[in-house]
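Hi W., the uracil complex you wanted:
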Amino acid sequence: MRLDKFLAKSGYGPRKFARKLILGGEVQVNGSIVKIPSYHINPEEDRVTVDGRPVVYFEHLYIALYKPAGYVTSTKDSDNPTVLDLVSDMPFNRKVFPAGRLDKDAEGLVILTSDGEFAHRLTHPKYHIPKTYLVTLSVPLGDEKLDLIRRGKVTLADGYNPLPALVEVVDALKVRIVVFEGKYHLVKRIFAAVGSKVLHLKRIAIGNLELGDLQPGEYRLLTPQEVDLLRKHGDVSATTN
Ligand code: URA
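Structure:
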């Protein structure tokens, strides 16, 4: 890979900026200053430093974002701000996209990545990655109705029977639900089928990954361990279903 491209992808972008660093003699490869932007390096083996600081290269980006209500989870929208607007200050030069959807009026955890294979694992129906939501209902629901959801005995308006879900009561109008499939408006449609509107929807976890301390509009990079765990979740759920 060209040295300027390597730097641009590793947080020293755009490429014009990376070139400036190289021509300015601030970049060393394996201990020697290299002033040639097109110089070829092997990202796995060569040690590159900028101003003495090692450059850590990674192939893909994995981001946890707290999507506020009002943003759409797509890469382009002519009428609304998108989740990409929230990461536009990111220093890493990768094209990311949302792995899965969250309604415009909902808030909470969205994963953005540049890794198509990883996004596929998070979103393909065969992997059944659990997603946890905090839901505010319009009317309280008794245990009888919640049990229908728990046992997979709800029939949606279009005739579909969602998989059993975990449901925990938080207070009279609040429940926590874990669903194991990704379907359009799934949580809203499940509660509509048992007689309640969803007034507020917040996704608080995807697999083992929790929203944690992120605030609305904030994002952070996932650690390699978090990425691995989400990947393994996909492996396990695909082989047990
Ligand atoms: N269920 C919904 O109804 N909406 C979402 O955005 C996600 C799950």
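The two ends are 41 Å apart (CA to CA).

W.
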